[in-house]
Amino acid sequence: MNYPVGGRELLSQVPLGAARAEADRPLTPLVLNNADDSGDDTVAIRLVHAAPDAPPVNAVLVDDGQPVFFPVAYGEVDAVFAMIVENPIQIRTAEGDPIGEFSVDATYGDLVTLFATGYRTPDDEPGQEAFDLLSV
User: For the chain, how many structural domains are there in total?
Assistant: First the structure.
């Protein structure tokens, strides 16, 4: 759900957790600020950790291993301004084990949101979606 302010959608609400009564992580809203201060020579990139059974994650550039995000735990959001436009970002556990990759395709001045979502072990969570990486 987006909230327009002055003709712009400055806030978005993202659901975290599960609506089931027996869920380990109950359904809670996470409000994201869509106002970005990226300039004409950077891209605003944010990572939303929405995978309930995944450990805290890091993100690095695939090409050179340069860190983009440091440990981001479930329910947390981190953002950076970067000079990357087309560069894959690898999501790793805090211990360095690869989980997946995002392809970032952006234009300078854009705001890109990367979501780590779903369950790494969906068989242990009946009716739940498998782990996935989404970029919007």
Answer: 1
